[in-house]
Amino acid sequence: MRTLSILGLDAAERPRLGAASIRQLAKLGTVVRWPGLLFAAVLSLAVPPRLPLGLAVLLIWVAVYNAWGMIAISKADDTSILRVGRALTLIDTVSYFLVLFVFGGVGASTSIYAAYILLIVWMVAYDGAEGAMLCVAIFVLGMLALHAALGAVFHQDFAAREVLLWSLIMVIAGAILAAYDRIVVGGVQASSAVGLDGSRSPASSSGGPVVGNAIPAVRLSRREQEVLQLVSEGYSNSMIAGRLHLSENTIKTYVENLLSRLNARNRAEAVAAASRQNLI
């Protein structure tokens, strides 16, 4: 995803979550989907869907990809777990609008749209401000497509006011969640790496908790060394991608792998750990 670089917001890229945290977040998503399926089934008893067969197919589809997700998460390594978790959440956004379509919209119960905020929370956790912007953009496009499809199939009037209202609500919700993630979560991580007096804390200087005084040796490939050097010089992922003539997703994978191998929670800690081990 290149949302940040396109908007010129490279400097706002959030500190990455550790692989263990991402794995737990992805696992939580697979747990939450099961009661979501149950809710949709119960809702179909109270509000008969316009396309009963379509709802049954969708429920089976969600159950299948959630089961796949549980297997994929358990098998994914630290460099690929983020892609697995993100992919599952993006599939959720598409499935969400398909479920609304088979119900013929939600009528007076428009508050069900608020459930989409949970998906924004997940994407913010994975990708910070970029994740929020992507999820909100999907919602706006999804609302337009949903109501256009409802008009074409069920001959319902296009609810322009409803589309505009909930799109604005999601924009505001996404902005608040992204700001909280950047300012509060990012601030906590940054303060743990650099003290108030500007000195680095012992944990950040060693790249994370270390047993005893020993610092584990890390051997880097030539490309990893190049990426680490550019990270230490303050380059963003998009800038590194341009410098090394690689895709931004490839650079993100390299950076995530470096964070994991250096036992670091963010780029600053990775640079500090690499410096301690004379890697840069």
Can you walk me through this structure?
By secondary structure, the protein is an all-alpha fold. It has two domains: 3-193, no CATH class; 202-276, Winged helix-like DNA-binding domain superfamily/Winged helix DNA-binding domain (Arc Repressor Mutant, subunit A). It is built from eleven helices and no strands. The protein has helices at 3-6, 19-46, 52-75, 81-102, 116-154, 160-193, 202-205, 222-232, 237-244, 248-261, 267-276. Helix 8 crosses helix 10. The model is unreliable at 1-15 and 188-216 (pLDDT under 50).
Main features:
71% helix, 2 domains, Arc Repressor Mutant, subunit A, 280 residues, mainly alpha
Summarize the SSE layout with pairings.
Blueprint: H1 3-6, H2 19-46, H3 52-75, H4 81-102, H5 116-154, H6 160-193, H7 202-205, H8 222-232, H9 237-244, H10 248-261, H11 267-276
Helix pairs in contact: 2-3, 2-4, 3-4, 4-5, 5-6, 8-10, 9-10
